[in-house]
Amino acid sequence: MGVSRIGIGLIGFGTVGTGVAAVLQRNADVIERRVGVPVAIMRVADLDIEKDRGVPLPYGVLTTDAASVIRDPSVDIVVELIGGYEPAKQLILSAIQQGKPVVTANKALLAVHGEDIFAAAVRANVDLGFEASVGGGIPIIRTMMEGLAANHFTSIFGIMNGTSNYILTKMTEEEKSFSDTLKDAQQAGYAEADPTFDIEGIDAAHKLAILVSLAYGTPVNVKDVYTEGIRQLAPLDIQFAKEFGFTVKLLGIAKDHGGEIEARVHPTLVPSSSPLAKVGGVYNAIHVVGDMVEDIVLYGKGAGSLPTASAVVSDIIDVARNRLKGIAGRVPPTAFQWTSRRPLRIRPIEEITSMYYLRMMVRDQPGVLSAIAGVLGANGISISSVLQKGREEGQTVPLVIMTHRSSERAIQEAIRHINALWCVSEPAVLLRIEGVEGS
């Protein structure tokens, strides 16, 4: 007997859940033409079923009992959009155990507990879609898993968090402090009341961990991804970067070193002429380098109700097509066949090499530059260029040094000694550089 429709069970009816319902209703005709049968919401679970979200649902669809959505025989695909670790993890595992495919946007859960969920989906031979977990409406997951499946990925890097990018864009354009810009972002609705995950780089680290897992066929512990946020960035450093021809962006960066992987998130100087430097506001851009295709850049809205919902519904359509054909697991949820994955070492930050920006507040006295240059030279670090502002005898002025490529371990050791010098009044600021020859 043929399938007359695909029933959807939504768990979570917040910003993204409302967007998914809106997309399924607004584009019902084109979705049906692409799938072959109607795709309809049968059940929706949320803690608050009284609030009007502006999306009409038939009477009886809403419930506060998430487990009942999974059990409902009319629900063919379970869509988890509540976020967080629990009860999201148990709800997803419950759906998988009952043989129902799952679509989720929960990057934090997948970054921390993804191995358990992937293993359960493989054992049960059910589909697991998570396109919306990275990059909002940008189709980076499917691009890497299918469109670029013939490639070895030499590197992945990009802007993976819209909130931090909005803040850095405003700090660059308006020369305002981080705290003032964050308040503006919160008032504009681009930053949460508690923006910790965004501004401390945690959200970007979750996304990078997922991409590294898919790109290199390895389990990734997100704790091994070096993570540094933007809270400590000063307008002074953003302006000095501009003088050197750079723009500061929070980047997620992964590189393959022949069986070892570099994975890190931190504020980064990129050439102001580069495509990434021109990505402003809440937009994301992810640059993938494959050995066969070389450079691929995907750009678009990395968050928001409808862009994220677009990615969720793309997974729903993919799973629905498989269900109508009576297949599942055609594309492994981990991009590699489960038995073909192997653990790869994630290099600690001390083992990377980079070019560096150093800014020190120093006394404006003779001998300062030679003292600092001596420390750098003793640690095998060569100077590319120097900029000093202000001439106030006996006062503290900024001294900025750009280095040639060096090891992180050497630069950190040098900073330790520089901070102890008689002429340095406060801890040095260090920023890494990407996107130039030799970086």
Q: From the helix content, strand content and strand pairing, which structural class follows? A: alpha/beta
Distance between the termini: 60 Å
Q: Outline the low-pLDDT stretches.
A: none
Anisotropy-based shape: elongated
Q: What's the mean pLDDT score?
A: 94
Question: Helical segment tally?
Answer: 14
Main beta sheet: strand number and arrangement? 12 strands, mixed
The percentage of residues in β strands lies in 15-25%
How helical, in percent, are the residues? 25-40%
Describe this structure in words.
The structure is a single chain. With 439 residues, this protein is an alpha/beta fold. It has helices at 15-26, 28-35, 66-71, 88-97, 107-124, 140-147, 162-174, 178-187, 196-199, 202-216, 235-243, 305-325, 368-378, 408-419; strands at 6-11, 39-45, 62-63, 77-80, 102-104, 128-129, 153-159, 226-227, 246-256, 260-271, 283-290, 294-301, 345-347, 353-363, 383-388, 396-403, 406-407, 429-433. Strands 7, 8, 9, 10, 11, 12, 13, 14, 15, 16, 17 and 18 form a twelve-stranded mixed β-sheet that branches. A six-stranded parallel β-sheet has the order 3-2-1-4-5-6, with helices on both faces. Helix 4 (88-97) runs parallel beside helix 5 (107-124), helix 5 runs parallel beside helix 10 and helix 7 packs across helix 8 (178-187). The protein is elongated, with a radius of gyration of 24 Å.
Quick description:
By secondary structure, the chain is α/β, with parallel strands linked by helices.
